[in-house]
């Protein structure tokens, strides 16, 4: 066997043997099985790393679908959503190198162009030249860009997309989701303090939001 | 008053399915949990993080129970464990926690205080040395030296040709020897 041609010395072998003999904490396996059972029955799995449970695409899909449904409800009844508008603080420099396009009152009215489904970035930029509020699909597309960037571990890209959502699109309908994505993106970018601070504000201002539990996980004790 | 019993009513299948699933999960965990735990520890996670991560691995893997070929279970679980460990390490790094030298707390249930101290020291040294290896070399060394796998299995687990596995292992051992030489004074068995 080729491996035996190049064995480690006995001291090294003893180190590896020590690792081989290490047993998991008592009851760890039973706790894991219990967590799987809870997962199968749809209960939240206590004790599992936050990312493992909430970082899944299923969570995102559910959140987006729920948000769209809620937002459509508000649009239908002509009411503004009660989501908090947690925007980045004005004094904080934007983590983006891209120019921010802001529509001015003197700009000629441009007819609304439906955002193409595939061109998410283009959709957001089209909305920037509109005088009318961004449509739900514009906002959704912008958040999809942010989520895609976050999934690809591109936290700066996600923050740029969220800045576009805030400053260019001036999104309103999916503000809570945008805030939560920003919290995640900050955390992913290593800015745990900023994420914690934002998460605290989110929880204070949205005590009844279904996203509160997730936001809480970013608050440092 | 007694209610008539409908003896022709179909037997509900759901509880049986649940029971079967639970048994499969239990059996799956028994087969693979210790392996997953060792791999995660070998990849640099602390005992606490390894427990959380092993739980994640189990949750992910058991969702695919029906699709895993029985003779590929172990390599599948290994692949999941490597990915989960990577995510956990990334998360820890973001939180700026010490990763490469995991707190190797002693297991209070372990017997023999002197032996425990020596084992803890040995594991701490091993983790320090493994942390200095490139990840691909670290993984093959874990599979070979902790799990005792042969090259064929290592190549399968790592999805690499056998020759590549052999050369990685050779490099890993050579590097490990060199590193251990510089830390020999820390080896409790020396």
**The biggest beta sheet of chain A, please?**
none
Give the N-to-C terminal Cα separation of chain A: 53 Å
Assembly level: heterodimer
For the secondary structure, the number of strands of chain B is 0
> What is the approximate shape of chain A?
elongated
Order of helices and strands of chain B: HHHHHHH
**Structural class of the helices, strands and pairings of chain B?**
mainly alpha
Radius of gyration of chain B: 21 Å
Structural Rg of chain A: 23 Å
What portion of the residues of chain A fall into strands of 2 or more residues? under 5%
Q: Which two chains share the most extensive interface? A: A-B, 44 and 60 residues
Largest sheet of chain B: none
Which residues of chain B form runs of ≥5 with pLDDT under 50? 1-15, 96-103
Distance separating the two termini of chain B: 81 Å
Mean pLDDT of chain A: 67
The fraction of residues in strands of chain B falls at under 5%
Helix/strand structural class of chain A: mainly alpha
